[in-house]
TrEMBL record:
Its main location: nucleus. One of its GO terms (cellular component) is nucleus. It is found in: Nucleus. InterPro entries: HARBI1-like, HARBI1_dom. One of its GO terms (molecular function) is metal ion binding. Its cofactor is a divalent metal cation. This is DDE Tnp4 domain-containing protein. Transmembrane segments: none annotated. Coiled coil: none annotated. Residues 161-322 form the DDE Tnp4 domain. Belongs to the HARBI1 family. Keywords: Hydrolase, Metal-binding, Nuclease, Nucleus.
């Protein structure tokens, strides 16, 4: 009998200890207990912007459910799910680390379900396309062109293009849909090669996160809807709109690249190349800001997801990046930096094809006109 009493006493003491731990580990309310500055550091969005995002996604995220369902995510409020997702995207930490964070205190499976639900909501066409889109009419094209002209005094530019690699966990070798070997890039790690086009303010106006790391930049561009749109625009006589890209892209009248050689100083060609490089660095800065803001995209963080889910996460980060640009959220400072992987560039080398390619000839003609114009 005495042993039974001692056992019951021990169990009672253990229950008290567990309850005490729960009290001490209560979740903090980031909206009320964090300063605005620290909230941005943790979640990348301001409090007002985070609340705007919750409202934006409310129709696509299940509300809290007080049922007896064992799945805790059915009981979590929308804003809580959004904050869990923002913290993961911002930090790139493992889901277990995010869940055990003192803001949340939930399990890894619950974190995973939160991320999937919120990321899927941000990838819905009606949400994503409202904040990430290429100019949709002549008025928007003119506005994009004016933005670059006012900033750089260089006519005709509507965007800068480049690709950046986002590391992913290797897919299964025998995966029929996503065979492992096609995701190995030229730097010998598994990635998605992501095409980005940005405007003069670093806002991303086009993203393509569907191609494996072994795909080169020019191939992705040639499959792009933007490439088709600009070609048709030029064929219709609207030739004063073009992108800037590096030598990994084919020269066209709608995509201007640097001269293939390094001109001697103080001649118009050298001035063109120098200006081209300066303005094209806009997309490199954009890539850097995107990955600094959402560190899950950094090479050493590695997205532990299938390529399909990784692509959705990349899209979600792009949407959030644009919201930050629109709402003037400062870029995170004084954080660990790394060299941003901007892609593998493969210049055109088939000079026989180049001589008989009318689109290439038109591109050279467009570039020569600009060189002449810039020296005036």
């Amino acid at each position: 009998m005495e042993d039974v009493v001692q056992l019951l006493l021990i169990e009672e003491l253990e229950d008290i200890e567990v309850r005490n731990r729960r009290v001490h580990r209560r979740r903090l309310d980031p909206f009320n207990e964090l300063s605005d500055e620290y909230f941005i550091k943790v979640f990348r969005l301001s409090k007002a912007l985070a609340q705007f995002l919750v409202h934006l996604l409310k129709d696509y995220i299940a509300p809290a459910n007080r049922s007896t369902d064992l799945d805790i995510t059915t009981k979590l409020k929308r804003f809580f799910k959004v904050l869990v997702t923002l913290r993961f995207l911002a930090s790139g930490s493992y889901q277990m680390d995010v869940g055990s964070n003192y803001y949340f205190g939930i399990s890894q499976p619950s974190v995973s379900r939160c991320i999937e639900e919120v990321v899927n909501a941000m990838n819905r066409n009606e949400i994503f396309n409202a904040y990430v889109h290429f100019p949709r009419n002549i008025q928007e094209l003119n506005a994009a062109r004016m933005g670059f002209f006012e900033k750089y005094n260089f006519p005709g530019i509507i965007g800068c293009i480049d690709c950046t690699h986002v590391a992913i966990f290797p897919p299964k070798v025998d995966d029929d849909n996503y065979p492992e070997h096609i995701y190995v890039n030229r730097k010998n790690y598994h990635s998605i090669n992501v095409q980005l086009i940005c405007d003069h303010n670093l806002k991303i106006i086009n993203v393509n996160a569907l191609f494996p790391g072994s795909t080169n930049d020019a191939f992705i561009w040639n499959q792009s809807n933007v490439q088709t749109l600009l070609r048709r625009l030029h064929e219709a006589g609207n030739k004063n709109y073009f992108l800037l890209g590096d030598s990994g892209y084919p020269l066209r009248s709608w995509l201007l690249t640097p001269l293939e050689y390094e001109p001697r100083p103080n001649i118009p060609e050298h001035f063109y190349n120098s200006r081209h490089k300066t303005i094209r660095s806009t997309i490199e800065r954009c890539n850097g800001v995107l990955k600094m803001r959402f560190r899950c995209l950094l090479k050493h963080r590695v997205l532990h997801y299938s390529p399909e889910k990784a692509s959705k996460i990349i899209n979600a980060c792009v949407l959030l990046h644009n919201l930050c640009i629109e709402h003037n959220i400062e870029t995170p400072q004084n954080e660990e930096a790394e060299q941003i992987d901007l892609g593998v560039h493969v210049p055109e080398r088939n000079h026989v094809v180049e001589r008989v390619n009318p689109e290439l000839a038109a591109g050279r003609n467009q570039r020569n006109k600009l060189i002449t114009l810039l020296q005036q």
